[in-house]
């Protein structure tokens, strides 16, 4: 599909939204290749810029953040996650982030390592040599169990029917709404709206049950911190509690699960890279399970995750609306313009990443990230809205892939030798990832 860099008069009303909706990743890559660091097009009447220069992105996310707000379209997530950290702005976002941030400091997340490993090891005991499994679902189940246990002290393994399906459906419908010029009010009983509302109600029951079952129970997890929090109006309302829990519930497992799924896909496609990772695990761990202190002793395993995040960043696109007239280098922006920042596109820039389409965990060796400009590699975003759980997610991903790979490897089925990325709110393998299990402990 050839993407035009100019908007014809016939398409001025809808701009290039149709082309974007047909294949978002191709559309963004093509426009970036055609137009360079500043690509422009229209979505309906709105002027949109795709900006891929790291220095410009740094200005948007850090130096001139005051002139930009999260895209209005992104607010289509609010009926799903409410006004939690992901969607809130201004003073509410600052207060809530200040409250939650201490639980996700690099030194603080170390205490969750044992539970991460134990939950993963328990889950994988059901794997059988030679069976075919939907690995994407397994990763979602494991990471949801991890976030439920570590942040909310809840045991939650039976996840797909009660939690996985409604999350998937809600994300599908939210994505449609974000990419549509006409947003039908959710109160109108269309098929999509009824499915969306039912999914949110299902998830609400899980979240509110979690909140209500924890009242008057002492703990030091995230839910307890939120429930004890006070402000000028008293304790946090149940609605705000629900919104923050839903946000952590979603963001705390969805992105890591996708990163792990892509990692297993890439390792299956590159057996020599997988062999190198397994040798590192055997050298460092032997037959014992990993712990949080082992993460720094597993540089190649860590680089496998980093490279998977480079090629398939779960947060593949950020949107910002211009709220005040601003200048970025030679670009003059007007209030109402929209900016797009795509880690997926930026991570494929050959100026900074040699052979950018190849899977090369070795590229992150020898202090690579310190040698490239800041905001060149941004799998967790940046600035004041950098992912609050980035340290938690990286440690979790390394520990989970190490725990699983000690006993099992996954091979692609012949019909799934090439997997297409599916860009919803996060970037996941389209139609899931069916893989054949190999039990490494069997001789």
UniProtKB/TrEMBL annotation:
InterPro entries: Cyt_P450, Cyt_P450_CS, Cyt_P450_E_grp-I, Cyt_P450_sf, Cytochrome_P450_Monoox
UniProt-listed Pfam families: p450 (PF00067)
Keywords, comma-separated and alphabetical: Heme, Iron, Metal-binding, Monooxygenase, Oxidoreductase
Molecular-function annotations in GO: heme binding; iron ion binding; monooxygenase activity; oxidoreductase activity, acting on paired donors, with incorporation or reduction of molecular oxygen
The keyword Heme is assigned to this record: yes
Domain of life: Bacteria
Residue sites binding heme per the record: 387
The protein's required cofactors: heme
CDD domains from the UniProt entry: CYP132-like (cd20620)
Family statement drawn from the similarity comment of this UniProt entry: Belongs to the cytochrome P450 family.
Protein name as it appears in the record: Cytochrome P450
Organism: Guptibacillus hwajinpoensis
């Amino acid at each position: 599909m050839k993407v035009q860099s100019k908007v014809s008069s016939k398409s001025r009303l809808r701009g290039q939204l149709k082309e974007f909706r047909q294949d978002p990743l191709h559309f963004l890559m093509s426009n970036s290749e055609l137009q360079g660091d500043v690509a422009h097009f229209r979505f309906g009447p709105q002027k949109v810029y795709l900006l891929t220069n790291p220095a410009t992105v740094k200005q948007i996310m850090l130096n001139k953040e005051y002139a930009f707000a999260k895209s209005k379209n992104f607010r289509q997530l609010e009926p799903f996650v409410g006004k939690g950290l992901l969607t809130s702005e201004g003073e509410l976002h600052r207060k809530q982030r200040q409250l939650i941030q201490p639980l996700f400091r690099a030194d603080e997340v170390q205490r969750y390592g044992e539970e991460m490993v134990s939950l993963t090891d328990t889950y994988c005991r059901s794997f059988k040599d030679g069976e075919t499994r939907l690995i994407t679902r397994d990763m979602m189940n494991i990471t949801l169990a991890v976030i439920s246990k570590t942040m909310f002290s809840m045991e939650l393994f039976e996840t797909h029917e009660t939690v996985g399906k409604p999350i998937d459906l809600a994300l599908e419908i939210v994505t449609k709404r974000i990419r549509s010029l006409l947003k039908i009010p959710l109160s109108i009983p269309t098929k999509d709206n009824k499915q969306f509302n039912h999914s949110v109600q299902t998830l609400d029951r899980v979240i509110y049950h979690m909140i209500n079952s924890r009242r008057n129970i002492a703990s030091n997890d995230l839910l307890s911190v939120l429930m004890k929090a006070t402000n000028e109006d008293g304790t946090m309302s149940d609605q705000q509690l629900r919104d923050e829990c839903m946000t952590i519930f979603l963001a705390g497992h969805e992105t890591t699960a996708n990163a792990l799924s892509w990692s297993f896909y890439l390792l299956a496609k590159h057996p020599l890279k997988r062999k190198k990772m397994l040798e590192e695990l055997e050298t460092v761990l032997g037959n014992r399970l990993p712990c949080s202190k082992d993460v720094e002793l597993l540089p190649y395993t860590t680089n496998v995750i980093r490279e998977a995040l480079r090629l398939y960043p779960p947060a593949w696109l950020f949107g910002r609306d211009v709220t005040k007239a601003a200048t970025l280098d030679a670009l003059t922006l007007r209030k109402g313009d929209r900016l797009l920042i795509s880690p997926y596109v930026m991570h494929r820039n050959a100026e900074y990443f040699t052979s950018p389409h190849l899977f090369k965990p070795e590229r992150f060796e020898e202090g690579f990230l310190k040698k490239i400009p800041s905001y060149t590699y941004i799998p967790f975003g940046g600035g004041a809205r950098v992912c609050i759980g980035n340290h938690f997610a990286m440690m979790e991903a390394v520990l989970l892939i190490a725990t699983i790979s000690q006993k099992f490897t996954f091979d692609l089925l012949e019909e799934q030798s090439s997997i297409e990325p599916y860009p919803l709110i996060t970037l996941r393998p389209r139609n899931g990832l069916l893989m054949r299990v190999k039990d490494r402990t069997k001789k």
